[in-house]
Amino acid sequence: MPSLTRTARSGRIQRDERREAVERRVLAAVDQLLTGGSTFTELAVARIATEAEIARSTFYRYFPDKSRLLIRMAELATDEQFSAAEHWWTSSHADGEAGVVQAMREMIAGSRAHAHLLRALSEVAAYDQDVGSYWRGRLEAFVTLVCTRLQADRTADRIPDSVDIPSTAIILTCMVERSIDFLLGTATVDDEQMARSLGRAIWLTVYGDAPNPS
């Protein structure tokens, strides 16, 4: 006879799997509707539920309102982008400028895959307090990560004392976030050129002309 602990654990796993499946379906549905020309503000819950092939009651079970929906969709859509950037900032940087350029390629590609959703996030964050607080918190957490790395490089004498760590971390984080947001809405610069330009700007700001920080 299965133990109560094992049964409870199995039940939690099944619930988590159901939640993930529903969230992925809703993310795909929202992406599809936004790609089709709808704006996020005009998307009705009933329409999203229909596109995702779920009941409205199921939708509300996981998303109390559209603000929470957008926040969760943004978490899913930006997970790989943040992971790529976090990986570079915590790596050895032995591959020099090429490493950060590759990280920018991955961030841009991931953002491009959910371009309409991320544009909606940027727009809604400007007037929705919950969405705005979420996105600012996400960026502030990344600024903290960059500060930690820059401080470690300062301690190891890899960057000069002239680099102000707090302001540099803010500038680099916002430069990448705003540049990619702008890129998604324009065709004047291609993705590869943006990746190379962002990578070079980051590298020169932190390490100057050094081929690698070692």
UniProtKB/TrEMBL annotation:
DNA-binding region: 44-63
Transmembrane segments: none
A Pfam entry, by short name: EthR_C
Residue intervals of the HTH tetR-type domain: 20-81
Keyword annotations of the record: DNA-binding
Gene Ontology MF term list: DNA-binding transcription factor activity; transcription cis-regulatory region binding
InterPro entries: EthR_C, Homeodomain-like_sf, HTH-type_TetR-like_transc_reg, HTH_TetR, Tet_transcr_reg_TetR-rel_C_sf
Protein name per its UniProtKB record: TetR family transcriptional regulator
